[in-house]
Amino acid sequence: MFQKILIANRGEIALRVLRACKELGIQTVVVHSTADADAMHVRLADESVCIGPPPSRDSYLNIHQIVAACEITGADAVHPGYGFLSENAKFADILAAHNITFIGPSGDHIRIMGDKIEAKRTAKRLGIPVVPGSDGAVTDQKEARRIAAEIGYPVIIKASAGGGGRGMKVALTEADLEIALQTASTEAGAAFGDDAVYIEKYLEKPRHIEVQVFGDGFGRGVHFGERDCSLQRRHQKVWEEAPSPALNAEERARIGDICAKAIADLGYSGAGTIEFLYENGEFYFIEMNTRLQVEHPVTEAITGIDLVHEQIRVASGGGLSVKQEDIKFNGHAIECRINAEDPRTFTPSPGTITHFHTPGGLGIRVDSGVYSGYKIPPYYDSLIGKLIVHGRNRVECMMRLRRALDEFVVDGIKTTLPLFRDLVGNADIANGEYDIHWLEKYLAKGE
Ligand code: MV4
Predict the structure, then answer these.
(1) 191 CB burial (10 A radius; 0-12, 13-18, 19+)
(2) Phi-psi group of 274: left, alpha or beta (phi > 0 → left; psi -120 to 50 → alpha; rest → beta)
(3) CA 411 to chain centre
(4) Whether the predicted model's global pTM rises above the 0.85 cut
(5) Which of 60, 249, 259, 293 could form an SS bridge with 211, CB 3.0 to 4.6 Å?
């Protein structure tokens, strides 16, 4: 087991990882920018190293500074959290070259999944169902027309170096195809330095359902069920739940087993998320994330398993604490992402939190790095906390969520809490009847 872990992140996830380290009796080091000197995770860590000025590229993305902080403090492993360097293959490789363990998969697995064409090809080879489309990159118009005619319109052109919604163009008919291909490729070249694009059948009303997987480092794979993350705005998840209201136990076991077997065959190590679009009872792979995700607590709530403990165990060579048959799903969980933003316009609202009071009681978890008197710096993303609610079933979970939202007080700044108070009373949400476009349509109506 590791003696000392360096946490290369900030905010609620830095605190989340720090808590897991403390429970395992592992010493903690945090790195931080000058803007985060007063952050909770800096106060609670055993050691801290200031690595640079506020801009991320000079601090949380500065690989040399982070490696230097490991050398100075004698950290034997790095947990990258999510975002920042968590899916940076070069960072994983550099740490390995310094004999520091990256708590995550190999640089090569990160690289494969970062290239969306390669990721899809790999998924298909491993027996994961994928969206019908081109087998690889598409360059010429004639080939594009042939593939689009074969799969049928509408189609979507995606950048291989994109992902997470960046660099996509929809062509409703053949008349749109030429310009869609041209602009997608040009924009991808400018944004990512890689103009490779691919074509897929455009699914019009899918849900976003993702499967939590783990490779144990010894060639075995398990799944921890799925999360439904269809409620998004501009590719930012807003509300996530586990299990998906759209799946039954048989569908869950079927897609879960496919994913677990694929992870084993790939020889993958650590936590991963396999993302699908789900429409008319079918799953279609779109991407794989090679990190712990923001919404991992809903999976923890329904399985009772600490996924950060598991990441640390696997990275240290100790394997998973559970076998597939030990992973049981219990009840229902919902996570609300509380952002320091205007609940209508989503404009960031940094500043001082004058009063912060979190809900409590059975089935309530709040993951947050803020406190009364804390000043939110303007340089980073606006997530200030996550409310995770667990109940024996979805109805109980929703009743408890409504109660928890009533108790939650954040004064001094604007937050997205009022949006959740609206959503929890909405009939479509109560019925679990929503797709990936539901939230944006709801917000456009201005109800
Ligand atoms: C799609 C799609 C429809 N058809 N692919 C957006 C994020 C990126 N991970 C993939 N995305 C999409 N890919 C096909 N073939 C629709 C989306 C999409 C979306 C997906 C998940 C959650 C929200 C979304 C919002 C708009 C579009």
Answers:
(1) middle
(2) beta
(3) 28
(4) yes
(5) 259
Give, for ligand 1, the residue of 158, 295, 436, 443 to mutate: max count of ligand atoms closer than 8 Å to Cβ.
436
Question: Cα(257) to centroid of ligand 1, in Å?
Answer: 24
The answer to whether residue 161 sits within a structural domain is yes
Interval 381-416: pLDDT, tens: 999 999 999 999 999 999 999 999 999 999 999 999
Q: What is the pLDDT at residue 165?
A: 78
Q: Is the CB of 203 under 6 A from ligand 1?
A: yes
Pair 78, 224 in one domain: no
Residue 342 sits in a domain whose CATH number is 3.30.470.20
Cα angle, residue 364 at apex, residues 386 and 438 outer, rounded to 5°:
50
- Last-in-domain residue among 180, 201, 222: 201
Task: Give the position, in ligand 1's atom list, of the atom nearest the Cα of 200.
Answer: 15
SS3 107: helix
* 378 plus 432 within the same structural domain: yes
Selecting among 207, 227, 252, 291, the annotated active-site residue is: 291
Please work out whether the CB of residue 205 comes within 6 Å of at least one atom of ligand 1.
Answer: no
Q: CA distances (Å), 7 to each of 1, 13, 57, 140, 297, in order? A: 16, 9, 17, 45, 19
Say what angle helices 296-303 and 307-315 make with each other, to 10 degrees.
Answer: 100
From residue 265, give the alpha-carbon distance in Å to each of 128, 343, 432: 12, 44, 34
Helix (H) or strand (E) holding 92: helix 89-97
Q: Which tokens is 35 given? A: 């803007």
The DSSP result for 318-344, as a single string, is ---S--GGG----SEEEEEEEESB-TT
Location of structure tokens 């705005």: 233
Distance 296 CA to ligand 1 centre (A): 20
For residues 321 and 20, is the Cβ–Cβ distance under 8 A? no
Does pLDDT of 163 surpass 90? no
Mutate to test the pocket of ligand 1, among 168, 295, 434 (most ligand atoms within 8 A of CB): 168
**For this structure, is 313 an active site residue?**
no
Residue nearest to atom 7 of ligand 1 (CA): 165
72 and 196 part of one domain: no
CA distances from 39 to 28, 48, 58, 183 (A): 15, 11, 18, 42
The confidence score (pLDDT) of residue 447 equals: 56
231-282: per-residue pLDDT in tens?
A: 999 999 999 999 999 999 999 999 999 999 999 999 999 999 999 999 999 9
**116 CB within 6 A, ligand 1:** no
Statement to judge: residues 172 and 281 lie in one domain:
no
> Cβ contacts of residue 264 below 8 Å, gap of 6+?
215, 219, 220, 221
The answer to whether residues 49 and 185 belong to one domain is: no
